[in-house]
Amino acid sequence: xxxxxxxxxxxxxxxxxxxxxxxxxxxxxxxxxxxxxxxxxxxxxxxxxxxxxxxxxxxxxxxxxxxxxxxxxxxxxxxxxxxxxxxxxxxxxxxxxxxxxxxxxxxxxxxxxxxxxxxxxxxxxxxxxxxxxxxxxxxxxxxxxxxxxxxxxxxxxxxxxxxxxxxxxxxxxxxxxxxxxxxxxxxxxxxxxxxxxxxxxxxxxxxxxxxxxxxxxxxxxxxxxxxxxxxxxxxxxxxxxxxxxxxxxxxxxxxxxxxxxxxxxxxxxxxxxxxxxxxxxxxxxxxxxxxxxxxxxxxxxxxxxxxxxxxxxxxxxxxxxxxxxxxxxxxxxxxxxxxxxxxxxxxxxxxxxxxxxxxxxxxxxxxxxxxxxxxxxxxxxxxxxxxxxxxxxxxxxxxxxxxxxxxxxxxxxxxxxxxxxxxxxxxxxxxxxxxxxxxxxxxxxxxxxxxxxxxxxxxxxxxxxxxxxxxxxxxxxxxxxxxxxxxxxxxxxxxxxxxxxxxxxxxxxxxxxxxxxxxxxxxxxxxxxxxxxxxxxxxxxxxxxxxxxxxxxxxxxxxxx
Length: 561
Known about the structure:
Helices cover 34% and strands 22% of the residues. The protein is built from 16 helices and 20 strands. Strands 6-7-8-3-9-10 form a 6-stranded mixed beta sheet, sandwiched between helices. It has a 6-stranded mixed beta sheet with strand order 16-17-18-13-19-20, with helices on both faces. Strands 2-1-4-5 form a 4-stranded antiparallel beta sheet, with helices on one face.
């Protein structure tokens, strides 16, 4: 039976030349009791679609009905959970849920209200925190309160607008599992908006993709039996097939063709690649093996309770041109290791050697791309990249330096936007500038600290391939910190897994023997891909929830390989 229905619905904002068509000719039937996932990315109108279901927006044309009656405004039969949780900071967990119950059921007896609040607080696993206020909760716990509050209003349909996107990977996965269990227990109709393919497959009976044109795209039925367990699905051929099909479809409709190459890289040498006069003529001024060495690295912070060892006995050797992914749970010291390699964070014990010299202080020979690219907003993309280029090519002409800047901006897909100010660029475009800036320095070492963590999945996929394409030209030695298993495998020659902190160290190293150049599509089709994925997932599961297994995943000696 149909519970929510769209008939020829379009939605526009603005008028005249400022008119923007967000959704076009939407026809959709949501069946009672089903879990529907709408999979879309930035700019596809997914939030507008769910606002139409919630009654927070009215269609420009067409009709949206609930049980056959037009939706003219919000109603308690349609509960909404947004990306950002709006909790009352002065109320406890139970108090925030109670507020919703009081509003919807004003005449309900007090004891019955208390029982209802306790039921839903327990359902989301927060009974132990019922008396805490939002400031005392983690992001994942706050979103659980949001879920409990929506459920306590006894809606017939639950509308979820990217409720997990602001959470870290582990919390997001755990809460997605909880949402599935809640749906199984309550069997409410659910509509979820997400940009995460794995999340969609885990939860959905049916997946519908939204296109960049604001229309409904291809529909995918999910026939994998419930309850779906992430680790088990990794071995399921149907999961492999569906994941590949959905990913390919989204990439085909969402990622535009790369710009044609029109510029050549000038033959100029960065100052940190010039061989000192004392070494000219000597054989092997740089080495290929053990080009970058972490030797017995410790990071210790002073605290009121005494020294705190965050990273302990970290040993790793990289060959020149090798790409390493560094993965582990939040707080395992991944970024600490990266910032020590960058010279931005002092080393407490041990030494880091790059190309035969110890790392001391920041230097353009070690380029860093952070999660947020930190551009000067008043400068253009080209001017932001030029700042570093002017310093590292002092003997090049102005024209040659501009050629370097424009070459890398073109490589990352900004040929038509290099003269735009940074403030006018999207988050994905800003991160492209950050990547171009790093490569343009011609560094000896490229360090990437979750460079795509703030981006939606499609933008992340696109920039991963941009990164791979540019890296394949330079073969710069690189380390990428990530929490994304697929990203780690896609990028790396080796995946280095860290144990939980404090006293985090290397727990396991997996060599990724997959052909290059790599693309996401090709990887999903490779017979060995899911075996590598399982190795990393098994390690992360062993260290889940801050666990510290009695025996390390592998002997520490492996870290020195």
